[in-house]
Amino acid sequence: MAFLAKFRKVDLARLAEEMGLEITSEDRVIDICKKIKNSPDYEEEFAKGQLDVIVEERENEIAQAELARKEREAELARKERETERVYELEKLKITSAAETASLNSTRSEGSRNRREIKHLMQKFDSQNTDISLYLTLFERQARAAGIEEEEWVSQLISLLPLDLAQIIIKESEEQMREYTNVKKVLLDRFKMKPETFRIKFTQHQRKQGDLWKDLVFELQNYLDGWIEGLNVTDFKGLKALMIADQLKRRVPNEVKDHFLDEWGELIDPLVLAGKLDQYESVRGHRKINPVRMAERKPLDRARPNSPRKEHPAKNAEKNRTPVWQNTCP
Fold this sequence. Notes:
The protein is mainly alpha-helical. Among the domains are: 4-89, no CATH class; 122-191. It has 16 helices and no strands. It has helices at residues 9-18, 29-38, 44-103, 109-113, 131-144, 152-157, 162-169, 173-176, 179-189, 194-203, 212-229, 235-249, 253-258, 269-288, 312-319, 323-326. Helix 1 packs parallel to helix 2. The protein is elongated, with a radius of gyration of 44 Å. The model is unreliable at 106-114 and 322-329 (pLDDT under 50).
C-alpha cells in the first residue's frame, strides 16, 4: 500500500470511484488507501496503471484549462486594443479637423503651442472629481490659453477617460463638434440636472483642508449650473427663482410629492403659489364635506318576535305542586 500514499487524494478518490467504492468528503488519504487495499477487486499492477492514467488525465485537464484561460485573456486584450485603436482614430479625426480649421486663421506659431491644454490640466477622474467643476475649470483654462471654442471638443477629449470619450464619439458628427452639446451630454451622463445643481448649491460644504476661496468657486459653479439649466438670463428671472425656492422650502413634503414630476421646473413664484392654493383648496373641500358613514341613520329593521312572556301569576299556578303529591306515606 506504500505506493498509494505517493498519489494525491483527488487521484485516489477517482480510482476508488472507478472501483465502485463509496468515498465521502471526510475520508482522509489513509482511509481511501485502506478502502482500495481491502477491496476484493484490488490488484496492485492494475491500481498502478490506473493511477498513472488518472494523473495524466488530470494534468491534461489542467493544461487545457490554462490554455483556454490564456486564449480568453488574449481575446480580451485584442478587443481592448481594437477599441483603443478606434478611439485613437476618432480622436485623430477630430484633432485633424480642428487643426485644418486653425490653418485658415492668422494665429502665430506661439499661439498654436499654447493650445495643448493637456499640459495644463490633469485628466478627468470620474471617481473623485465633479464633472461640472471640471468643465468650468477646463473652460477657464481654454480661454486663458487662447484656444478657440471650435477646438474645445478635441482638447477636452484628450483629457477624458476612454468610456466617456466613447459616449461623445457616438454622437453625430455635427453634434460632436459643438462644445455646448458635448457639455450637455457629459452633464446628463452624470445626472447633473438643474435640481441637482440647486441641491449642491444649498447643501455643499467646504472640504477639510480646502480654502474658503475654493468653496466660493464651487458654490458659484453650482449656482451657474442651476440658473443656466433653467434658462434664467436676467435679474428679474433670478429674483423670481429665489422667491420660488423660498416657497418650496416652506411646502410640506406630502404636498411636494404631489408636484414631484414638475417640481424642479416650477420657477415662477406666482405659478407655484397658484398651484399650491388650488391644491389646498381641493384638499380643504374634501375635509369639510367628507362622506361620514357614522352620520347616516341606520335603517329601521323589523324587530324579531320575542318569545311571549306569560303572566307571573299563571306561572305560579303552573309551578304549584299539588298537596297530595308531597304527602308522606
